[in-house]
Structure formats: structure tokens, C-alpha cells
Specification:
The structure holds 2 protein chains of 2 kinds.
Chain A (H helix, E strand, L loop, with lengths): L4 H10 L8 E3 L2 H11 L4 E5 L12 E4 L2 H11 L3 E2 L2 E2 L3 E5 L5 E10 L4 E7 L6 H7 L5 E4 L8 H11 L3 H21 L1 E11 L5 E3 L2 E5 L8 H4 L9 H8 L3 E4 L4 E5 L2 H13 L6 E4 L6 H12 L6 E8 L4 H14 L6 E7 L2 H10 L8 H16 L1
Parallel strand pairs in A: 14-16, 16-17
Antiparallel strand pairs in A: 1-6, 2-3, 2-6, 4-5, 7-8, 7-10, 8-9, 10-11, 10-12, 13-15
Chain B lengths: L10 E4 L4 H13 L3 E5 L7 E2 L3 E4 L2 H8 L3 E4 L3 H13 L4 E4 L6 H13 L3 E3 L5 E4 L3 E4 L8 E8 L3 H12 L4 E6 L10 H10 L5 E7 L4 H12 L4 E6 L23 H10 L3 E2 L6 H8 L1
Parallel strand pairs in B: 1-2, 1-5, 2-4, 5-6, 6-7, 10-11, 10-12, 12-13, 13-14
Antiparallel strand pairs in B: 3-4, 8-9, 8-11
Chain lengths: 381, 289
């Protein structure tokens, strides 16, 4: 789960990192009030959406007065950035900048530990720095059992600032960033830019935190930060039903158990000349209600021309899936053809349940995918 | 022969009285696995599935029964401690089935397990099976048959699909290992490939990867440098859009190093036969046996 910038700033502030005062607005009028309250000569108005490249898309603008902040906010609110509508803007004082750095910590799969990255080339995407001037990125691996060691923090800080007073300030920020990262259950926490002001203060001007979804159960305060208005409504509905669903552009709706098999099924749809309408994993447990929810979500997609079930029973029992399909067709109209492939645990029972309502199932994955693709094409013709 | 699980495996089930734990204990026993103990704190002294003694701690279970392998079915929030406990008790093979383990927990668990000389498989994995000998985890026994093929996979049900295709074609398996789809896992492709290369009974290996991370690329380098046995590979997620989480936390295409195209190219460069779809596994293997 990604946090919005204003949420990430608040977490860093609570961790003791210097972050300039700010405010959030959902209307231009509110934006003006926030700018007045901040009392700054100039403010920056920033779109709060889960997308990179906000600046390039016109979602970040300066304003020289509260009145101008209102005008700028009116332009940014409601605009679309990478398919996401802007519902909120952040207003913060425009800082004076002597230099910009990047600091971040991620969970790195290769070293299997948190890794810090810092760069004196801040203010631009770290991916861009990595591509053009990789020698300007410095890393330190953290043993999660001991945390970021003081000498590691100071060593990284000296990569950013020669002056020891400044380096100590930065090292303190790195320690606090690591604590905020752990406390949030994050997989990524970064400050870009970390700014040195002409007065020699070091402050965080932007913040990004991505939380590991597996942490949310034990961190209700973080889970409460989820902004469902920033997500595809069908994906929100799916998550509430404990399904993993990602909407795509094709016309073959897919219902599969297991993420790997779900991806392989989409790949096979493409292999046989079709286009998958979605990724959908009903997960390991076998609750017929999940299947009903899955069919609800897929039939709500008007682009879907045929529905393909690919179930390999293990923990998931095929009879539970069959019961779910039958229950769904009784509760609402499934007006698209369904091709069912199921094999594995309780396959025979499932075939009997489907047979009872005049439905059939295949046991071969390739055959099922071919039929579903042909049906989608037939319906389109 | 086989890898990691054999006739000497004596298994303790952590979370044996839970819903998943009890169901799969029955399945493992029925398959012939030597389940010597179970652990559920507070239920020590009871019997699970009629015959398996239950202990309060893994240390007691090991002391009393000589268990040398553990399988973990506890809820995700207790999984990290369950792994620590098994490592402290001196268990050599720890298989963590639990799904949804926070990745920061794994950053603490992994070095600890390594320092204790134990092998961790998972988390978020289906475990492993040596057909005809025993299984540790949840892979359905009836889809497997004994034979010369080693299977290693990041997926669960996709592994079943490929094994099912192998078995239907008469290609049996030495051991099938599901290493799990999370970003940080205890045993990776290279560990399994090395074990299969060293196992005299294994004559060829099937490797099933997916988008995200660089494990498959590193595995390809290993195959090229260190393996004589033929390897057939598959990558799930060829049609996945970049940057979207596809169910497995590990399956995030980050930067340019995690796409299916890149992984398949790495396979080809390393001389690994690339499957376009699961059903290709049979003809590709038959050409190489």
C-alpha cells in the first residue's frame, strides 16, 4: 500500500525529522486558507496521487500568494495524472534550497535485508541517477537485527556533506528515517529531496512511503491511512472480498486459484490469440462466497465477452468452486459464456454439482483456454 | 534418491491442531511421511490425528522424538517466531507454509536461521514432496509420481499444473520443491539447482519462475557455469503490466530487471530450454533425456 505524500510527511515528522509545516486541501478555497495559515511568502501546491512524475504532469505548482494558491489548486484539483483523479492537494511553504540530496531505505531481495541508498544528486528520480550517474549512489546494508548502526549512518551522511555539523544532522535524520520505516512496516521510505537551506538547516521536502500489505493487520493506524478513492473501485471491492484482482484491457475474464497459475493462464490466453480482461486470484482457501464475489466483479466489466475458470484443486476444493459458480448463477444473471477447467481435490464432486445444473467442465488447461478465447472472439464478431 | 526430504526425515508439525495444520498432517501421514510430533502451546500431552504426540514447545518435541525437520502452519503473525523456535531447537530443515509473513520479519529471521545452520524453505510456499517417500507441506500427493525429474518453483498451483503434466506423460519426479513467492525466502533457485545437480537420481530439472526480482537471472548464470544436467524453464507473467502487484509480493516488476522477457532471454543465453506454456514441459524434457 502506498501512502500519500502528506501522510508520509506526517509519519516522518512524528519520527522527529524536520519537515516544513503543511496542510491538505480538497477545495480551492481550503487551499487559500491553508496558504494563509502557513503565512509563507510563496507556497507550493502539490497533487496527492499515487503516481510518479507529478511535476512533469503539471501536478506541482508554485504560488506567490494565498489568492494564487487558490487559483493553482483549482487547476490541479480534478486533473488526471496517469489515470488517477486528483482529489487532494498539499500546500507547503516554498523552501530556499542550497543543495538537494536523496536518502532512502528499501527491503532488498538480493541481500535479503534493508538497504540504505543516499545520493548527493537529489531532486530527480533515483532511477534516473542510477541510469546516468550510478557512481553518485552510495549504499549500506543494514542487519535488521541491529538496525542502522551509528557509524553506518555517519558514513552515509559524509557522502552527502563534508561539514561534520551537517553530516551529524543528516546522520540523525537517517536514524529517524530507519525508525519510521520499521514502525510503519514499510518496504520503502524515501526523502527526495533532502534539502540544505542557505542557513545550513537540513529539511525533508518530499516523502514517499510504501507499506508492506502483510503488515496492515498488526498496524491498524497505518491501515487506516488507505485512500480507497485513489484506487480502481473494482479492485477495492475485490480486496474487501479477499481476492486479488487487477483490471486489464482484454475480453477474457479469468478466475484462477494461485498467483502463478493466474499469470500463466493470462499468458496462455494471449498465446492462443486472446486478451485477458483481468488477473484474479481467489487465493488458497475455498469459500464458495469468494467465487460469487469474483463472478460479480468480472461480470461488472462490460468488456468481458467470455469467462474462464482455471482451478487446480489443492487447498482449494473444486466442489467449493462449483458451488460458488452455481450460487452465483442463481443470485444474478451471468450473461456471458463460462468455460470451466478444474482438476485436483474433489474434482468428481465438482463435476456432479455442475452436471446438476447442466454445466460441464474440462480437465485440460490448454483446451479450456482455447475454448474461452474462441467464445470471446465469437461474441465480438 | 532425492533432495532435502528422504527416508530419514522425522517431521514435527508446528500449529498441528489448527485448521490447516490438522488437515495437512492427516494428508502427510496418509502419504507415508513420518510425522513424529506436533507443537501447539498449551496442548502438550494430547494426541493429534489419533497417534501424533503434541508438545508445548519445539525443543521438547525434538528432545522426545528426534525430529529433524519442521513444517509451519501457524498464522502469519506468529510465523517468524515459529521459525526462530525451530532454529533454536536445532531442527535442520524448516518449511514455512504460512502466507502473509511481513517481509521485515523475514529480514530478521533469515540471517538467524543461516547462523544456526538450518535450511528454511518458504515462507508462503507449498513445501516439498519426494514422491513415494514423503511430503512436507501441501503439494497434493496424487499428482506426483516417482521418477528422474527435479522440479523447483516459486509458485504453488502452477507447480501442480506442471507436475500434473509431467505425471500424465509418464515423467516422474525425484523431488518437487515450492520455494515460495515472497521477496525474501530461505531457499532460492540456486540452492535447489545445486542439490539436484548433486543428486544422482535426478537427470533433468524443471525451473518455474515468475516476474519480479532477479533470482531467475542469477539461477541462469548458475546453470550455465555449474550444471551439466539439462534444465527446462518457464516464467509466469509474460502478459503482466509493469509495476502491478500480481498476488505474490515478489512479483513486482521493478526497474528493468524483472520482466518475463528479460528472464526468458537470460534462460536462453544460459542454454535453458524455455517453455512458452506449461504444456511445453513434456516435449522439451523428452528431447533432452
Amino acid at each position: 500500500m502506498n501512502l500519500h505524500e502528506y501522510q508520509a510527511r506526517e509519519l516522518l515528522r512524528r519520527a522527529g525529522i524536520p519537515v516544513p509545516a503543511d496542510g491538505v486541501a480538497t477545495t480551492p478555497k481550503e487551499a487559500k486558507q491553508v496558504a494563509e495559515r502557513l503565512g509563507a511568502r510563496r507556497v507550493v501546491v502539490k497533487a496527492q496521487v499515487h503516481a510518479g512524475g507529478r511535476g512533469k504532469a503539471g501536478g506541482v505548482k508554485l504560488a506567490a500568494s494565498p489568492a494564487e494558491a487558490e487559483q493553482v489548486a483549482a487547476k490541479i484539483l480534478g486533473m488526471t495524472i496517469k489515470g488517477l483523479t486528483v482529489h487532494r492537494v498539499l500546500i507547503a511553504p516554498a523552501a530556499e534550497i542550497a543543495s538537494e540530496a536523496y536518502v532512502g531505505v528499501i527491503v532488498d531481495r538480493t541481500t535479503q535485508s534493508p538497504v540504505f541508498m543516499v545520493s548527493p544528486a537529489g531532486g530527480i528520480d533515483i532511477e534516473e541517477v542510477a541510469a546516468t550517474t550510478p557512481e553518485k549512489i552510495f549504499r549500506a546494508r543494514v542487519d535488521a537485527r541491529y538496525g542502522l548502526l551509528p557509524h553506518q549512518a555517519l558514513g552515509l551522511a559524509f557522502r552527502l556533506y563534508d561539514d561534520v555539523t551537517m553530516a551529524r544532522q543528516a546522520a540523525d535524520i537517517l536514524q529517524k528515517l530507519y525508525r519510521a520505516f520499521v514502525d510503519a512496516g514499510a518496504s520503502l521510505a524515501e526523502i527526495n529531496p533532502l534539502v540544505r537551506t542557505p542557513q545550513g538547516e537540513i529539511v525533508a521536502l518530499d516523502a514517499k512511503i510504501a507499506v508492506d500489505d502483510n503488515e496492515l493487520d498488526r498496524r491498524p493506524a497505518i491501515a487506516a491511512l488507505r485512500d480507497t478513492t485513489a484506487e480502481e473501485p473494482s479492485e477495492v471491492q475485490a480486496r474487501e472480498a479477499n481476492l486479488t484482482y487487477i483490471k486489464l484491457d482484454g475480453d477474457v475474464g479469468c478466475v484462477v486459484n494461485g498467483a502463478g497459475l493466474a499469470m500463466a493462464t493470462m499468458d496462455l490466453v494471449k498465446y492462443y490469440g486472446g486478451e485477458p480482461a483481468n488477473f484474479l486470484d481467489i487465493g488458497g482457501s475455498s469459500n464458495p462466497e469468494k467465487v460469487v464475489s469474483a463472478l460479480q466483479i468480472i461480470t461488472a466489466d462490460v468488456h468481458v465477452k467470455a469467462i474462464l475458470f482455471n482451478i487446480f484443486g489443492g487447498i482449494t476444493r473444486c466442489d467449493d468452486v462449483a458451488n460458488g459458480i452455481v450460487a452465483a448463477t442463481r443470485r444474478f444473471k451471468v450473461d456471458r459464456p463460462i468455460v470451466i477447467r478444474l482438476t485436483g481435490t474433489n474434482e468428481k464432486e465438482a463435476l456432479a454439482i455442475l452436471g446438476g445444473v447442466g454445466m460441464t467442465a474440462l480437465t485440460d488447461m490448454d483446451e479450456a483456454v482455447k475454448q474461452a478465447v474462441a467464445m470471446a472472439k465469437g461474441a465480438a464478431a | 534418491m532425492s533432495v532435502f526430504v528422504n527416508e530419514q526425515t522425522r517431521l514435527v508439525v508446528q500449529g498441528i491442531t489448527g485448521r490447516d495444520g490438522s488437515f495437512h498432517t492427516r494428508q502427510m501421514i496418509d502419504y507415508g511421511t513420518r510425522v513424529v510430533a506436533g507443537v501447539t502451546p498449551g496442548k502438550g500431552g494430547q494426541k493429534a490425528e489419533g497417534t501424533v504426540p503434541v508438545f508445548n514447545t519445539v525443543a521438547e518435541a525434538v528432545a522426545e522424538t528426534g525430529a529433524n525437520a519442521s513444517v509451519i502452519y501457524v498464522p502469519a503473525k506468529f510465523a517468524a517466531d515459529a521459525v526462530f523456535e525451530a532454529a533454536d531447537a536445532g531442527v535442520a530443515l524448516i518449511v514455512c507454509i504460512s502466507e502473509g509473513v511481513p517481509v521485515l520479519d523475514m529480514t530478521r529471521v533469515y540471517p538467524y536461521v543461516k547462523e544456526h545452520g538450518a535450511r528454511l524453505i518458504g515462507p508462503n510456499c507449498p513445501g516439498l514432496i519426494t514422491p513415494g517417500v514423503g511430503k512436507v507441506g501441501i503439494i497434493p500427493g496424487q499428482i506426483c509420481t516417482a521418477g528422474p525429474i527435479g522440479v523447483v518453483s516459486r509458485s504453488g498451483t502452477l507447480t501442480y499444473e506442471v507436475v500434473y503434466q509431467l505425471t500424465r506423460a509418464g515423467l516422474g519426479q525425484t523431488t518437487c520443491i515450492g520455494i515460495g513467492g515472497d521477496p525474501i525466502i530461505g531457499t532460492n533457485f540456486i540452492d535447489c539447482l545445486a542439490a539436484f545437480e548433486a543428486d544422482p537420481a535426478t537427470t533433468a530439472v524443471v525451473m518455474i519462475g515468475e516476474i519480479g526480482g532477479t533470482d531467475e537471472q542469477l539461477a541462469a548464470d548458475f546453470v550455465q557455469a555449474k550444471m551439466k544436467k539439462p534444465v527446462v524453464g518457464f516464467i509466469a507473467g509474460q502478459t503482466a503490466p509493469p509495476g502491478r502487484r500480481m498476488g505474490h509480493a515478489g512479483a513486482i516488476i521493478s526497474g528493468s530487471s524483472g520482466t518475463a522477457a528479460e528472464k526468458m532471454a537470460a534462460f536462453e543465453r544460459a542454454g535453458i530450454a524455455v517453455m512458452k506454456r506449461p504444456a511445453d514441459v513434456v516435449p522439451l524434457l523428452k528431447e533432452r533425456l
